[in-house]
Amino acid sequence: MLRPRITATREQISLDGLWAFATDAQVPDQAHAAPLDTKLEAAVPASYNDQFADPAIRDHVGRVFYQREVRVPRGWGNQRVLIRFDAATHAANVYVNDLRVGEHVGGYTPFDVDVTDHVTAGETFRLTVAVDNRLTRETIPPGTVATGPDGTRSQKYLHDFYNYAGLARSVRLHSVPRTHVSDVTVVTGYEGSTGRVDYTVELSGSADVLVTLRDEAGNFVTSAAGATGTLEIADVTLWQPGAGYLYDLTVELRDGSHLVDEYTLPVGVRTVEVRGSEFLINCEPFYFKGFGKHEDTPVRGKGHDNAFLVHDFQLLDWIGANSFRTSHYPYAEEVLEFADRHGMVVIDETAAVGLNMLIGAGISTGGEERTFGPEVLGDPSRDVLAQHVRELIARDRNHPSVVMWSLINEPASNEDGSREYFEPIVELARELDPTRPLTYSIVMFANAENDRIVDLFDVISLNRYYGWYVVPGDLRAAEQYLRRDLASWEKFGKPVMMTEYGADTQPGAHSVWDGPWTEEYQANLLAMYHRVFDDIPYFVGEQVWNFADFQTSNGTHRVEGNKKGVFTRDRKPKAAAHELRRRWTSFGDGKPKPQE
């Protein structure tokens, strides 16, 4: 799934900006058939929810409509014309004038709509996008929609972040030649000082293929002919954590001396593997230190913003982090490209969150409903998850920063039916990408004795909240629970890491005692966890929950969202941020020594 790029043969026009906007409660079902009858405008890219002061829009459940006029450049007459949506949360139908031309289900992966046969070079067309935010038992993530006596719909879901929706990422009109490169796959490795790039090029049409590799300075390295092959790099510079060296692999399609198409893909040469209880990057043990994050900022919601991208990475560098997990969905492609260039290590996660009927907004509901089965999450749900896995791996498999796939967050992996549900998903992921390890984040209800699927994965990733949801305020008891828990996983002989741990903290709340919600308690809780981690020889990483405070659904246990961030939602550091900085800047990418 190639990201659109401007090359010698390809062009694009950004469609970001202000679009006419309306909900399905404000306009008729056939709203695409004419200019929208609305005075509202919404910014793209951004979630629509927080842009308006009207609570009926913020809490709307159902479809919303975006519309704008688009002019096709007059020089595109001999090209294929496509519209690229980087994301539409959670499902979209696309219309050119009054004709439906495309659709997509899944809120965090991109899709192209080919409109060549419906538009004319040099002329304009009306583009309408209907985006549906509803979550059901057959969507990923799952949810339920209820309709009240007055016909108003309400949305329930089982994940602890706000269900922001709309066109949260960029939209662009782009062109490709009629014969073009449709996909490129690379797998890298090295032996001694010689690097290797195995490549496969997929074409739409027929042409001769020439592949050229250049270094970061633009110097020629090597080339090869043919749609498949191997490029060898003498004196290779490896992509390393903290040093994201990238080569440029350029694919040219030629008809004799005529250039038919050109596409350039950045390539980082590195290896990843799990060996025993170690996680290795370039054959060296790697220790994850970082965060679970969210795409979440004020007003924009989940809208991508390059200024926040730069600032967040600056804060990751300042605090000494080397990694993060894309909890709980694939992030914008700009994020992964930035990680590639700057050597940030990424655990890339699907949108499979909330697959646990005992969880509600981050805490146990005390319910007894089973999670897996025809009446709850059955074959239709699993088929949708499989498609999410296909699209995630197709989009991100060439990013050197992505070192592991996280297929699920906090599933009911201790329940009957979990293995039947997830084993085909694991098999699919291994088939699509045999080069990266697989993991999933294990909920506290699942332990080393009752988890049904842990043997299917390469790395054991634990989400644990001793000292918060369990024995809150008692760090001595929390430490005992944590030590017993971590010791119980040794028998599997796999690397173990923590993908979530932390405590809600109100900025500015202080106490000389270990009082929950204070900045001191958050810092002391993290320090206790770190003391335990350093005593575990098979432990390979710590990712705090969360990088920054984020918005959640309404609830009495959430005051202005989840406050487990070590930074506030507007990126001000809490005391815990300074505690982490002292720790993480004291050692490199290898495992820290036990604390005295």
Automatic annotation (TrEMBL):
Belongs to the glycosyl hydrolase 2 family. This is Beta-glucuronidase. InterPro entries: Beta-gal/glucu_dom_sf, Galactose-bd-like_sf, GH, Glyco_hydro_2, Glyco_hydro_2_AS, Glyco_hydro_2_cat, Glyco_hydro_2_CS, Glyco_hydro_2_N. Keywords: Glycosidase, Hydrolase. SUPFAM superfamilies: (Trans)glycosidases (SSF51445), beta-Galactosidase/glucuronidase domain (SSF49303), Galactose-binding domain-like (SSF49785). The gene is uidA. The keyword Hydrolase applies. GO terms for molecular function: beta-glucuronidase activity. It comes from the Bacteria. Residues 570-596 are annotated as: Disordered. Residues 179-270 form the Glycoside hydrolase family 2 immunoglobulin-like beta-sandwich domain. Its EC number is 3.2.1.31. Residues 14-177 form the Glycosyl hydrolases family 2 sugar binding domain. The keyword Isomerase does not apply. Residues 571-584 have a biased composition (Basic residues). It holds the Pfam family Glyco_hydro_2_N. It comes from Myceligenerans pegani. Residues 272-586 form the Glycoside hydrolase family 2 catalytic domain.
